[in-house]
Amino acid sequence: MIRLSPECIVCLARQAIKASKAVNAPEDLQFKVLKEVMKTLVSTEWGGCPPDLARPVFRTIRKVLGVNDPYRRVKKLSNDLMLKMYGKLKELVMGSQDPLRTAVIISIAGNAFDVAVMSEDDLMRIGNEFLKFTSEIMRRGVGIDDYELLRNKVLDAERMLFFADNAGELVLDKLLIETMIKVRGREFERVTLVVKGGPIINDATPEDVEYVGFREVVRNLAVKTVSNGDPGTGPDRRDEEVMSWFREHDLKIFKGQGNYEALSDVPNSFFLLITKCELVARSLGAKVGDVVIKYVRG
Question: In what order do the strands lie in the sheet with 144-145?
């Protein structure tokens, strides 16, 4: 688990303005949201990891805006963009020398769909030019590359636990798991896909899983949820119930910075992400912007 740093506080305060603008809130309401978020930041314990503090911050944002899902429109747009490109991306994967590696890198490239660190305009630009963006990612190479370990585990495993990150990116995770099954030549005994139980930033939720057609490619799919900070949305990522999920699966994959920040100490696990801040980059021994395929040993 990565501990909160001073930079995280500034980043979380910035989210108040970004979420407000996402719903076209007038300036006076933006000020109100920012003021209430600052109160939340001051009154909340700063001893955990960044996602621990993000949950009450976004609960405050939703409450003051009076909007349950400020990024609902952006999530749908990013899902639709990637669904539209699914056929071309699948052709790219299956026509490559190593389809699984290509699918892994495309899935990680989708980790760029993160409105916490990117403007909506930039996110949409990347979505519309995703093939070009993916080519650039592939040309740049992988900063931390434990792919061979991942490939071997994919071939041998029977029960996979997959913690998804953002909408849009979720479509590319679907392509990744579809490719895993093709390369293996057999279904997994079980695939457990974990998403947020309610809206927070542009994270994927069960609604997104159904919207992008995940069940079309994964026969033995179970969907579980972890908390977005609201009651009834699922257990905390470090709850004992979630720990039991880790023990029940022989392949564990975590997408994105938030899952790395909260669960980087889970043994025998793979973390797939693009580093987007200095805190995570320092923890990994990588540079900001690196593509990361990281295995954490037991």
Answer: 144-145, 291-296, 269-274, 251-255, 159-163, 190-196, 221-226
